[in-house]
Amino acid sequence: MTEMPHITVQVVPYERSGYAAEGAFTLLRFSEPELPNIGYVEHIAAGVYLDRSDDVELIGRALDRLAVDAETPDRSRQLLAKARADS
């Protein structure tokens, strides 16, 4: 699936993670221009959808930071293939 044109996987090494974001979150982006981006944050007991522009912007900035810190998509594919072969 990592070679499909609409999917990008980037692995963030553990030593580089932890400061750009805390916990699981998702940014939902839609191809229809009239639909706004929506954030989704998971908590221990539930998940919350966020639609305030400040919240969505914060999630977008965290994703941008993670993408900069992550391995490239090619390198990430190599790491995943190696981990799969080693298990």
TrEMBL record:
Among InterPro entries, the record links this protein to: DUF5753
Q: Record's superkingdom?
A: Bacteria
Tell me which Pfam families the record gives: DUF5753
- Which stretches make up the DUF5753 domain? 1-81
Protein's name in the database:
DUF5753 domain-containing protein
Native organism is Prauserella halophila
